[in-house]
Amino acid sequence: MDRKTHEYLFDDGDLSAYRSVSCKRLGWLLSKPCVIGSYLRSERQLMARIFMKLKVIVGIIIVVVAFAILAGVKAAQIGKLVELGKNFQLPPETVSSAVVHEEKWRNTMPAVGSISAVEGITLSAEIAGKVTEISFESGAKVAKDDLLVRFDTVSEEAQLRALQAKVEWAQTNLARIKSLRTENTLSQAELDQAETELKQNQANADTVRAMIAKRTIRAPFAGQLGIRQVNIGQFLDIGKPIVSLQSLSPLYADTTLPQQVLAKLTTGLAVRVSADTYPGKFFDGVLTAINPDLDPVSRTVRVQATIQNTEHLLRPGMFARIEFLFPEEQTVLVVPATSILPAAYGDSVYVIEEKPASTNSPAGLVVRQKFVKLGRAKGDFVTVVSGLKSGEKVVSSGMFKLRNGMSVVENNEISPKSDKKPNPSDS
Fold this sequence. Notes:
alpha+beta, CATH 2.40.50.100, five-stranded mixed beta sheet
């Protein structure tokens, strides 16, 4: 057995004097000389494990204590924030208000339509020819039968002179034959032939006169001309437009209405027409025609009103807003249109109510959201069919920053006034 095999495995610090002593020399002390080294090595490893476990336990205790302290601090902070939140009051929002009130509105029905002329055409050429004379200016007002355009009629006038000569000869010949017939010199057949020849020549002359008349364009009615579309010397084909002629007074206002209101419509019903071109100006008229049939697709009936346009402000083709005025009046609840909060699930308003004082807050005003059903509108106002009562106060501006139960204060000095006939200065 070599020396390394029998060398004691004592600790370097405690058994340094025996490191070089072999188990063979200490055999008289112990029956198993190498057991001491193994025992000391196991004890050293056990102590190391115990020390390591103690360090882990102490570390865990430190972490748990630190976590408990941190949790306690956070719990105290959260409790303090909760307590502050219970006592916190948002500052009231400033809004403007309006009172729900009753008014008597005339029962009306709005519609949109267009303006058309009672008499309006685009003059065109009936016969092809060359323009030799233009007797009007663009935009001029003309009377009935005023000359507008003349075409070249030289060949037709020559034909007319020749035919007039034939007519004169046929008249002379007929007179001679009639005198001879009274003397029974000629037969009745010859007299009939002379009369027929005269009529044929007269008809031929009338045909040429008609051709000359078609080459002369005159105003078929009084009105205002548009912009001319021809020039002197221009050759025009059949149907080529020359100029527009429109009668500006009176005018028609055409629109369509749903079949549900057909029972209320009668000729002579008053109408009021307005156009975006003249804000705030209305043109009065009457319902003059109701179409006897309805559109089978849209189930609407076409109606026509006649309006006086003495100032010639309205023009054919204009977009118009038409309001049918029924004779009866109706009591309605009215609120400003700005107080309505539209949404996909329904229209609503914020009603202002008084809040009594409590331990956490003083008395004041709060808002409560209510859903409403709306009726027709007039200017800046709208009628409420259901959801509100007369005398209630609603928010008229500033409702987009509100929520149910929020405190508010009223300030009606900065909000614009509502009007049934608004006319903004910058419109």
